[in-house]
Amino acid sequence: MKKLNNIKRILIANRGEIAIRAIRAIRELGGESIAVYSEADKNSIHVRLADYSICIGKAPSEKSYLHIPSILSAIEISYADAVYPGYGFLAENPNFAAMLEKSNIKFIGPSSKTIKLTGDKAAARKAAQEANVPIIPGSPPVETLKEALEVADRIGYPVLLKAAAGGGGRGMRIVHSPQELARLLPVAQRESEVNFGDNRIYVEKFIQDPKHIEIQILSDEYGNVVYVGDRECSIQRRHQKLLEESPSPFITERVRKEMGEAAVRFAKHVGFTGAGTVEFIVDKDMNFYFIEMNGRIQVEHPVSEMTSGIDLVAWQLLIADGQKLDFNQKDIKNTGHAIEFRINAEDPETFTPNPGKIEDLYLPGGFGVRVDTHIYKGYTIPPYYDSLIAKLIVYGKNREEAIIRGRRALTEFVVEGIKTTRDFHLKILKDEEFLSGKYTTSLVDNKYLGIKE
């Protein structure tokens, strides 16, 4: 097994299951892990599993996990030579990455320049055009209603307003008429300013009932770039993913290959290094269009690991260590089918957060079952952070077997004391539209939440 040569003491600037995932990979590669934690997370498992741990502040994330001075202080007193950001928090903050670069601390991810480019939807869209990657008809960012109306008139309604500097559905509005555009543009601009400190909005053609499919990328510092299969991410509520599977049951092998090659072109064009994801939407005719690139590990990365046999987190670390990929595109053989269920501390009917104490817990197991989690019996889920408490990943030789295994494992997954999304997933696995593989991003909102676009 490979070992780390240049980075040895790695501070994990995150919490929860992704912090534990990083600790395990670091240990296997011969490194030392340094956990940081807020006062609310003092009893978290990642604090116990790490080689060293440092409290960085009070419970709210802006006073701990998002507080850059506290993270920098922890790096200094722990003599860390690298930082693993995981996902969320500071994972895609170009200013944080730039500070580490100036201090000769390795940021385990792309350069600050690349993070800034891929994090700006308008700049990323332009880069996609330059790399000959299909994009949705639209415009550069607009600042005035007049500009937005001109773009919408040119490409035709309905159109989608999207924040240039963010994601997760924030600053996003679907518009069907000039009157709606006049009303919703200021709303989207305000929401974008509040969430991202940037009120720029761009206008693009709205693709009705698309598929959301993404391509996993690995890219080293020597220009070697590969794609590690695709992931179907169309089970979403309010633009937030709930279930992912690999491979997509919808696209053909030809389209899968074309999307992979397009993702590689984009990654090379922007000088990306590390583990990242290029996201696309796909219409009913299998035309695909670039959405964005996430220059970090994704929550749903385990389904790609299960079907490819490639440890993506380990390769993030090895790439940051200056090591070359020891395989090429022809060596990657995706087999079988994997599904990930996000187990959130939420009401399964309304998806409202439901933090609290876990009174009892039983985690499923058996052949083809993996659980990534940080929870345990007696653990109190704090109300300050994301509601994800576990990821259940199942693998089968084909989609049918993976679905059967998923039903069995979900039935075994017992969490008492709080509500979780387990029961929602059991419903989805019986849903005829899901079982057909033809489901789109509108399934959950339309059928289960009664939200019509």
Helical residue percent band: 25-40%
Biggest sheet descriptor: 8 strands, antiparallel
Assess the beta-strand content as a share of residues: 25-35%
- The CATH first-level class of the largest domain comes to Alpha Beta
Task: Round the mean pLDDT to the nearest integer and report it.
Answer: 95
Q: Note the overall shape.
A: globular
Unreliable residue stretches:
none
Q: What class do helices, strands and sheet pairing give?
A: alpha+beta
Number of separate structural domains? 3
Q: In CATH terms, what is the fold-level topology of the largest domain?
A: D-amino Acid Aminotransferase, Chain A, domain 1
- Spatial separation of the terminal alpha carbons: 50 Å
Tell me the CATH architecture of the largest domain.
2-Layer Sandwich
Please tally the helical runs, counting DSSP H or I stretches of 4 or more residues: 15
Quick one: how many beta strands?
21
CATH homologous superfamily assignment of the largest domain: ATP-grasp fold, B domain
What spatial order of strands do you see in the largest sheet? 14-13-10-11-12-15-20-18
Radius of gyration: 21 Å
